[in-house]
Amino acid sequence: MRPYLAVILDSFHAALSSRVLWIAFIAIWILLGALAPIGYREDLTTEFRRWDFDNGTQLKAMLAQGLADPQQESTALGRVSAALPEDLQRQLKRVAKGEEVRIRTNALADGLNEVMDRQDWHDDDAWKATARLRELRDLDAKSDDELSEVMKKRRSRLRIEAALPGVFQARASRSILLTYAGFDFPAPLPFGKEQFDMVTNQFVLPLLMNWLLGFALIFLGILVTASIVPDMLQPGSLHLLLSKPVSRSLLLLSKFLGGCAFVFLCVCQLVVGLWLIAGLRLDIWNVRLLWCIPVAVFLFSVFYSVSFFAGLRWRTPILAIGITCMFGAFVLVVGAIGGYFDAFVSQPAAIRSMVLAGDEVLSTTRGGVVQRFDKTENVWSPLSEPDQRQGDLVLPLTKLSDDTVATARIKGGRFNPYGSGSLDLQLLERGTDWEPEPAMRLPIATRRIFAVPGESLIAMNTGGLMAADWDSVLAWSSDETKSTSGTKAKAKNDSESAAPGNWLTELIRKRGGATSDFQSILPAGVTIVQPVRVAVSDDAQWMILYSLGRITRLEKSRDADQPIWLATAKRELDGEASKGAVIAISGSKLLVAREEESIKILDAESLRELSGIELSSDGSVHSAIGLADGERFMIVYSSGSSCLVSTAAGTAALDYSLQYDDVESVSLDRETDELMIAHDTDRIDFVDSQSFQVQRKIRPSLSGWRFVDRWVITPLRTLTPQTGELGQTVAALVGGKSSVTIGQNSADDGDRIRFKILRPVLSCAGFVIVMLSISCLYFARRDF
């Protein structure tokens, strides 16, 4: 081994003697020195910023109503509106008169910040009718003398948020403020320390590593190491090496390992330096960051294997550098094409929701397409073809009967919950070949709809829960035998004629209130504030509402003339209220899975905690569904893996007897008791929820761009080393998660980012082995 170790050490010495290496060292030291003064401090979240508002239109409408509606004068909303600056009040009064007034969200934020500086607008009696967080109740229990100025502003902010429910984005109670050399950055970050650590580990550090290690250092490394093999092949050097009793292949591999010395020396300094800065300055001691060292050297070995063979074949460093750059460009183009197909072909086709309507299977996709499975052609037949660039959001399908399914399309809803244009309920009926037809108008910003068969259709939006009479919904059906109010035309005329046109009604509509067809069912003192989730029981006679860390059980009133549901139990969870959650009902049990917390099983009637179970390492819970036996839940992690949660023994336990990978969504048909599991983009398995036996499967045929992706792009990406995807490997190693979910606080429409960990490693490792084998074979058989 000594001769080979001597070759490797010689390569280290050669790298240390390179001027480029020392230039890289100096650049790394300068970068680390520039980053060293960065720091942070935590402070209470007080002032409003424009990104705090869920939607400025709703906020504008609520404040205008607070000024113009006499009934709001003594309420919390009215008192906050009356305390706004006079110039802002004049604009809001014009809004109340029906004028189109454009008010910037920055102006609204500044106006509310001026309100916080005063205390005369608050009244204890007015705020008792609002839904106050535990933090606000604790602050209200203290006198002004017990509170600092910052705590008083925090209390004022919470009071304003309580007066304007459904308007603000969920924010942590404490915000991060970055500093540099002791000076504060202009504005605090819109998240707390826990979220700051997650964003830094999951996105910032991997992105920094990708650019510094995946581009700059690799390019410099190729410049330095391109001459190693040509120099070795010089007559004097090569004859001296071959005169020793050594293997040509091992000699060449030793040179290859020694050539990685440049990147190893640079990466060690950069990664260790960033790790120390993150720990000492940001309190993020993430030892997983050190995984970037072997990953970076491994990534360099892919390109170096090309340069290595080119230098061996043509014996010139210039040509070796040129060929390596051409190879890098080819890999970049293939990766870009693959990423394009992932973003615009595969991911948009993934099933987001599905229902079984008789013998028909209907579904919606991530791309906003409503589709029906054509059994004769064995393909998904689209019922709508939206422009994906508009970012439309299709609400999950809701089954009204075996012949009717309901949904809605929010124009631009993926980026704005209020969308653009009117929001109409869409009915898909067997009699019209399941073509979506517009029906009654939904409340603005509706995110989910739930059916109470024979009684009502419930819509959940940012303003609350509202219900429409079942006969009013069926009045829009094309089948007149199911309608008790007449035909579609009559229903439309009745709806339009019943819609009052006064300014107050329009304001209520703008702020997400009731419409002519829908009326609120929330009891007094219960509001919907993001993040929010709703789960309806099997018999649709009660539901569970999760809103900003609070759980409320709502039961339908026994009085048929009373639309308001009753709040029979309430519970406020410990911890940060801004955390999102996933909830599901199975019989009399309730599953609650909050971000970064263990899964809790509660009694659905009393909301008393029964048991809990720690999360697995597959990431956060993305969705969950309760099975009909009342003892089990199926949960889907953000990574796409799934398992069962069994509560039969009195304590919760994970059960992997029904395990699927790459799950897109799950649904349970209550009539057939079949569990529908959508996986691998658009495949569906129908599983008996009692025996867990697969009853039938949907395996659609590929066509169009999906066919090109499967049989052209995928093989090309398989044969090409996926160097770009190694960044996802870094993100998974550094962040400690194989996936993350973005945008899951508002509804079950969060986008999952699943990191490809093993695929790029295997493809790159295979390529390096092939290239080194070719180089060794060529060097062993060539007479130099």
From TrEMBL:
Keywords of the record: Membrane, Transmembrane, Transmembrane helix
Transmembrane parts of this sequence: 20-40, 203-229, 250-278, 284-306, 318-341, 757-780
Gene Ontology MF terms: ABC-type transporter activity
Pfam families with a match to the protein in the record: ABC2_membrane_2
Coiled coil region boundaries: none
Top-level taxon: Bacteria
GO cellular component: plasma membrane
UniProt xrefs under PANTHER family: INTEGRAL MEMBRANE PROTEIN-RELATED, MEMBRANE PROTEIN
Name of the protein in question: ABC-2 family transporter protein
Highest classification ranks of the organism: Bacteria, Pseudomonadati, Planctomycetota, Planctomycetia, Pirellulales
